[in-house]
Design a protein that fits this description.
By secondary structure, this protein is mainly α. The protein has helices spanning about 1-20, 25-45, 75, 80-100, 100-110, 115-120, 125-150, 160-170, 175-200, 205-210, 215-235, and strands at about 50, 60-65, 80, 155.
C-alpha cells in the first residue's frame, strides 16, 4: 500500500511538474480514478462492490501504557493504535527535518520561491519529487490506519471526505508541523464529541446535525483563521 501511494504521488508530481498540469485538478482526477479502481478490483477478486472483511486480517496493534491505563485519564492516553503514536513521532521528526536540516531548508525555499531557490543552485524538481513521494508514503500510513487500525475491513469511500478536512487542517495550522497537529486535534475532539452526543438519543437532536458538528467547527475555525490572517497582513501593510 505504501509503495502504491508513493507511486501515485510520483505520478501526480510527474504530471504537475513535467507537463505543467494543474496539481489540484490532477489530484482530483487521480483520487477519483483510484476510488473507482479499488471498487473494480474488489468486485473482480472478491465479488463485492461495497465492503470486504477477510477472516485472517492482521490488524495494527494498540499500545497500552502500564499504570496510566488504570487512571481516570487512561482511556485518553492508553489503548490507542500504534499509528497514533507514530503520527506524533512524524510531527516531531518533520519539524526537526524542516527547520534543522539542509534538506528541510531546501524544501521551504522551493515552496516559498522556486525561482529564487533555483538561482542559488537548489534542484527544484528533485526537492518537489521527493516531498511528493514522502507525502504519498504518509498518506498510505493513514489509509492503513483506516483499514487495519480501526475497522479491520475495507469499505468503499471509507475516508468519508476526511482528506479534504486534512487540507483544511493544513491551512489552519499555517502549514507548520505543530500547527497542523493542533488543527488535527481540534477536529479530532470535535469528531469525538459528535460521536459521544450520538450516544444520547434522548436529546432529540437529528443525527445529521450531530454528524455535521466536526465539519462545521472546521469551517468556523478556518473562517476565524482567515480573518486573523487578513488583519495581520493589513497591519503590516499599514
Amino acid at each position: 500500500m505504501l509503495r502504491l501511494l508513493a507511486w501515485q504521488r510520483w505520478l501526480l508530481a510527474f504530471l504537475a511538474f513535467k507537463y505543467k498540469a494543474h496539481h489540484i485538478v490532477t489530484g482530483f482526477a487521480i483520487n477519483t480514478f483510484a476510488s473507482a479502481v479499488t471498487v473494480f478490483l474488489l468486485q473482480t477478486f472478491f465479488g463485492s462492490s461495497g465492503s470486504y472483511q477477510p477472516g485472517n486480517v492482521v490488524t495494527i496493534p494498540t499500545v497500552t501504557i502500564p499504570l496510566i491505563d488504570r487512571t481516570p485519564i487512561g482511556p485518553l492516553l492508553s489503548g490507542h493504535s500504534l499509528i497514533v503514536w507514530l503520527a506524533l513521532l512524524v510531527v516531531i521528526l518533520s519539524s526537526i527535518v524542516l527547520y534543522r536540516t539542509p534538506y528541510g531548508a531546501h524544501v521551504i525555499a522551493v515552496g516559498e520561491n522556486g525561482a529564487a531557490a533555483q538561482s542559488v543552485g537548489i534542484n527544484n524538481l528533485k526537492i518537489k519529487y521527493s516531498a511528493f513521494v514522502i507525502c504519498g508514503v504518509l498518506c498510505g500510513i493513514g489509509g492503513a490506519f483506516l483499514s487495519t487500525g480501526t475497522t479491520s475491513m475495507f469499505v468503499r469511500d471509507m475516508t468519508a471526505g476526511n482528506g479534504f478536512i486534512a487540507l483544511a487542517v493544513i491551512s489552519l495550522g499555517n502549514e507548520r508541523p505543530y500547527g497542523v497537529l493542533r488543527g488535527a486535534l481540534i477536529f479530532g475532539v470535535a469528531n469525538a464529541a459528535s460521536i459521544l452526543i450520538e450516544t444520547y438519543p434522548n436529546l432529540g437532536i437529528p443525527s445529521q446535525f450531530i454528524q455535521a458538528i466536526p465539519y462545521a467547527i472546521t469551517i468556523l475555525m478556518l473562517l476565524v483563521h482567515t480573518i486573523q490572517k487578513r488583519d495581520r497582513i493589513r497591519a503590516v501593510q499599514g
